[in-house]
Each structure stands twice: as C-alpha cells, then as structure tokens.
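Let's practice the habit of predicting before peeking. Look at the sequence and jot down your guess about where helices and strands might fall. Then scroll down.
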Amino acid sequence: MTTVGDRTTAPVKGVYGARFLAPLFLGPLLNPINTTMISVALVPISRDLGVPSSTVVWLVAGLYLTSAIAQPTLGRVGDVLGPRRVYLAGLVLVGLAGLLPTLFGGFGPVVASRVLLGVGTSAAYPSVMAMIRTRSARAGVATPPAVLSGISISTLTSSAVGPVLGGTLISLAGWRSIFLVNVPLALAALVMTLIWIPRDESRPAEADRPSLRDLDPVGIVLFAATVSSLLVFALRLDTPHWWLLGVTAVALAGLVGWELRRRGPFIDFRMLASNGPLTRTYLRMFLLYLGFYSMTYGYSQWVQDDAGYTSSQAGFVQLPTAILAGIMSLAIARTARVRGPILVACTAPILGGALMLGLHSSSPLVYLLVIAAVFGVAQGLASVSNQQVLYRQSPPDRIGTASGLSRTFVYLGAILSSGVLGATFGDAPADGDMHVLGVIVVACAILAAGLAVTDRSLRGTADRD
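Done guessing? Here is the structure:
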C-alpha cells in the first residue's frame, strides 16, 4: 500500500469496478464518434440533398461550435447541480437528435440534429471527469492512471473508428444511419447510468462546493459571444468578416472584466494566469488538434473527390489511424509518466505533415496507409497523456469546468481546421491543397513540440495525483 498526499492508492479494485466504469466509458465516445463519422458523409449528404460543399461543411462546424460553448458550460452546471443529472439529460438529448434526420426531410433538420448532438454529447466528458473525482474522494484513494486512460481510449478509439464506421453504415443503410446509431448508444448509457451510478446526493459534503449563485449566467453569455464570434470568423477564412474580430475583442474584454470581479467566476482567469502548466496544456491541445482535424477532414475529402475512392473505401483508408491509435494508447494506459509520450505525440505529426507534401492522386495505397498510421501514433499518445496531465493540473472543485474548457480548445482547433479547409479547398480539393495542409500540420506540430520541450512541469507529473 502506498500513499499519495492524504489518499491511498490501494485498494481501488472495488472502487472502480466494471459496472461503475461501463457507462462512464460509453458516454464520452458519443461526441468524438459523431465528429468523425460525418467526415465520410459530407459528400453523400451534399449529393442527396443538393447542398453545395461550402454549405454542407456547417454540419461539421455546427457541432464543433455548439460543443466549444457547451462543454465548459455544462461542466460548470455539473459542478453546481451534480454531474450525474447533467450526464443523464445530455444522453436524452443525444437520443432525440439521432431521430431528427429520419423523421423530417431536408437539410434543416440535419443541421438541427448536429447542434442538438453538440449540446447532448458535451455533457458527457466534464460530467464523467467530475464523477471520477468524486468517486476517488469518497473512497479516499488516488485515481488509477488506467481509469483516466480508459476515458481517453474510449474517446480516441471512437474518434479513430468513426470514419470506418460511418463509411460502413452509409454503404449499408445510407447516410441517415450515422445519426440513428446514436439512439441505441445513448439508450444503453442512460440505462446503465440510472442503475449503476450513485445519485448526486451521495457526493461527499464539501465546504467549497459551488452553489447555484456560482452558475454565472452573465459570464456564460459573454463566453459564448466570445467563442462563437471567433469561430464563425475562423469558418470563413476564404472571405473573412473582419468585424467579427471586433465583436470577439469586445466580448472577451467584457468577459475578463466581469469574471475578475466575481467571487465564483465561470472562467477563473486568475487561476489560468497562476496555473501555467494547465494553460500550456490547453494551448498544446489546441495546436495538436488543429493539425489532427485538418488532416482527418482534409484527407477524407481529398481521398473521395480527387483520389477517386468511395465513402466506404475512404473510411478504410484511415483504418491504420484507428489501429495505431488504439495500440499506442493501450501501451501507455497504466503509466503515469507523460513527458515522453507527449514529446512523441508532438513530433510524429511533423513526419506525417512532411509525407503529405508528397501526396498525389496517383499515390499508391500503401503510401496513403502509412500517412494514416503516423497520425494514429500521434493521436493515441496525445489523447492519453494529455488526459493524465489535465486531471492532475485541474482544481478539484472545478474539474468539470476545467475539463470542459479543455474540450473548447480542442474544438477551437477543429473549427479553425474547417476554416482552413474552406479557404484551401474551394469547390473541390486538389493535390496542391493537401500540400498546403501538410505545411500547416508541420507548423502546428513544431509549436506544440516547443511548448512540451520547455514545460518543466511535465517532468514531475508522474508523482502527483
């Protein structure tokens, strides 16, 4: 038996059993699987509904934009009202969203479904992180690295498998099936949570637990205005609306001024300023996922529109990403040492981006598979190691908000990648466009690697809970 702070690392077997973990592993995969399944459905949806490529990209942006705002918001609501309640409400929304495109025709219900999916799935990750923290606090044990890695592996695997699953579903039952698949997944998570996860009332009494007064609706509105105006600007980099940056600046100034005066702010800027390691983790995640999503969506569209592969084939071309991501995440699942994996995660995309510079529509299949494999290595290591770091660096009483905010930075990268693709691809991607993406991926990886190399806090994270 060993001790970490005032908590013991054993026994934890009975604390984190299969019944407790199963619903917590299932819910968080709903957001990443929906973000990546759509990558192989954009072309079929565009052709079926007669929607141009410049418009159908809003199916990607709508979920990201909603999630970027909803993740920290629902994390904060969970910190105040209880994470289990928020988690259950989110699962109900996911199930309803999955039905919309089948029940109603046209492009509007598809967009509405994606927005609703963004809200519903955003409840999962911050709520699960809060429930894990509460579970450890109640049992007086340190959270095992394998539990945190399990959340990462769940989200990572679903993200990597998304294009493959999406392509398979589309080939078997049409593009609407990628929405319907949410219904049984959400229902299963809902039932397991109701049966196996303790009610929020059983959380330990904490003197510093947030109250209803700490929901800070003004801060949430200002945060939403800041993020939404910035992301809408990023989406239209091909025809930038510069006035949106003015809206962003005004909203951000108002947000900072408001939050600094509050006792229980929605976004604690003082904490971010004093917690350099956490802030650097957010920035590193933004850069990495800007590169990852630029490759994921750009690669999928290029493979179909320029290289001539079908939707299902495009999904399988990215299968090495799923396989290598899973292998790498499992390889480091039980270790608390993160500096090495983070350094590899930041440098591997440099190789991947360089290989993208050699892409041509006539490139052999093995070349395409090697590129996908390189990014799989990076994604597997980045997901698990950043998850470990984030959990340790987040304030205990704000784990939901801090976890949700980390996803906002991921979605900032995802939205910016959509804007980059819109500005680069035009009506259809060409070989030269993929070369531009390769340069962007390399630049992001170099900056992320710089943050990791100079971050001395990563050397000691193995010894903290």
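How did you do? The first helix runs from residue 18 to 26.
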